[in-house]
């Protein structure tokens, strides 16, 4: 039984009770996803499972059999940051940095949700072909990722800057 993590095939643990978070951190030595609350309330452990954001502390590793996991270590590269990672630096979207990996993974999935037209609880027009990424929409979609340091304003600015360009490109192509 295997899963793929950041493009590399990895064996699943023998113990079916191991969380995906513990597999990533303790066995695969990928410390990016953080164990914050270990109850699914803070979002520090957010990773992508087949492109969808999940809380790895609430996901059993065996549930990911045959699937693809992307952690923050699989986003960008040293010397070649993902544009969102660069925007976090430029907008001071982190202070202690503990929540940053989960924030970035969540924002990447959020941008994909918007591209696919998936509405949120605050989406005004459910019949619109495109969803505008404004501050209210962004804050609602990112509400599962908490920052204890109070860097939310920088986080919001980094995400808006990164994905505003993509939204404009999508609209120009239509």
Q: What does this 3D model show about the protein?
A:
- This is (2Fe-2S)-binding protein.
- Residues 1-75 form the 2Fe-2S ferredoxin-type domain.
- Keywords: 2Fe-2S, Iron, Iron-sulfur, Metal-binding, Oxidoreductase.
- By secondary structure, this protein is α+β, with helices and mostly antiparallel strands.
- It has two domains: 2-74, Beta-grasp domain (Ubiquitin-like (UB roll)); 83-173, DNA polymerase, domain 1, CATH 1.10.150.120.
- It has five helices and five strands.
- Strands 2-1-5-3-4 form a five-stranded mixed β-sheet, covered by helices on one side.
- Strand 3 and strand 4 (52-55) form a beta hairpin.
- The chain is globular and about 45 Å long.
- Residues 169-174 have low confidence and may be disordered.
